[in-house]
Design brief:
The structure is a single chain. By secondary structure, the protein is mainly α. The protein is built from 6 helices and no strands. Helix 1 packs parallel to helix 3, helix 2 runs antiparallel to helix 3 and helix 5 runs antiparallel to helix 6.
Length: about 190
C-alpha cells in the first residue's frame, strides 16, 4: 500500500475544457468569432474531455467534480448538437427553445453554486460568475437580446477563473507549494 502510484488530478483537464470552451463561446457572443471553433470545442474539449474528467472524479470519490464535469460536458455536447441541427436544417431551435435549454442549466448551476462556496474562494467566484452569466443569457433569450453580449463579457471572466483554478492545481504540484492562492471558502457550515 505504501508504494501506490500517485494519481493525477482529473480536475485540471475538466477545468481547462470548461474554461477554454466557455471563453470561445463568449468570443462568439460578443461577435469576435464564428461558430465553427465553438462546435469543435463543444464536442471534444468542452464535451468529451470534460466528461472523461468527470468520470475520473467519480473514481476519486468527488461527487461535486463528478457531477459538474459530466454535466457541463453534456451541456457542451448538447449545445454542439443544437448548432449542428440548426446548421443542417434538421431541426431549428428558436431563440425561445434555446432559452428554455438555458433555464434548465441555470437551475443546475444554482444548485451547484451552494457547495462551490464551501470549497474555496476561487470556486465560489467561478460559480457565481457562471450563475450570473446563465441568468443574463436567460434574459437575452426571453426578450432582452442585448443581455447576450453583456453575458459574453461577464462569462469571459468565468472562463478565465476556471483556467486560474487549473493553473493553481498544476503549479501547486510542480512547485510543491501554493503559488496561486484560491482563497478561503465563503461559507463554513
Amino acid at each position: 500500500m505504501a508504494n501506490e502510484t500517485p494519481m493525477g488530478n482529473p480536475g485540471v483537464v475538466g477545468l481547462a475544457g470548461f474554461g477554454i470552451t466557455t471563453l470561445l463561446l463568449q468570443f462568439h457572443n460578443v461577435g469576435w468569432c464564428d461558430a465553427g471553433p465553438i462546435v469543435a470545442l463543444a464536442f471534444i474539449y468542452g464535451g468529451l474531455a470534460q466528461m472523461i474528467a468527470g468520470y475520473q472524479e467519480f473514481k476519486c470519490g468527488n461527487n461535486f467534480g463528478y457531477s459538474a464535469f459530466v454535466s457541463y460536458g453534456a451541456f457542451w455536447i448538447s449545445l454542439g448538437v443544437i448548432f449542428m441541427l440548426n446548421n443542417f436544417n434538421i431541426y431549428h431551435s428558436s431563440t425561445r427553445d434555446l432559452g428554455w435549454f438555458l433555464v434548465g442549466w441555470t437551475i443546475y448551476t444554482a444548485i451547484m453554486w451552494i457547495p462551490a462556496m464551501r470549497i474555496h474562494g476561487a470556486m465560489a467566484i467561478t460559480f457565481t460568475l457562471l450563475l450570473i452569466g446563465f441568468i443574463l443569457l436567460d434574459l437575452g433569450h426571453f426578450g432582452y437580446p442585448e443581455m447576450i453580449k453583456v453575458a459574453g463579457y461577464e462569462l469571459m471572466l468565468c472562463g478565465v477563473s476556471a483556467l486560474y483554478m487549473m493553473a493553481h492545481t498544476i503549479y501547486a504540484q510542480v512547485f510543491q507549494r501554493n503559488v496561486l492562492p484560491v482563497g478561503k471558502p465563503w461559507i463554513k457550515f
